[in-house]
Amino acid sequence: MRQGGRTVAETAEELSHLRDAAAVLAAHPDYAAPQEKIAAITALVGSGRFPLLD
User: Fold this and answer.
1) Are the C-beta atoms of 45 and 53 separated by less than 8 Å?
2) Which residues of 30-46 are buried (b: 16+ CB within 10 A; e: fewer)?
3) How many other C-beta atoms are found inside a 10 Å radius of the C-beta of residue 21?
4) Whole-structure pTM value
5) Which helix (H) or strand (E) holds 52?
6) What is the C-alpha separation between 28 and 53, in angstroms, rounded?
7) Greater pLDDT, 15 or 54
C-alpha cells in the first residue's frame, strides 16, 4: 500500500529517522544552535524529503 507516494515500510523508516533526530535534540536541551544550523534544519524540514511533516 502506498500513502503519499511511499510504502508503509518507507514511511515507518522515515518516522524512525525523525525520532532518532528528535532524541538527539532532546538529550541536549541546553545547546544553543548557531543561526546557520537553525536555518539548515528549517530548510531540511521544508525540503519535501519528509512528507509526513507537510
Assistant:
1) yes
2) eeeeeeeeeeeeeeeee
3) 13
4) 0.48
5) none
6) 22
7) 15
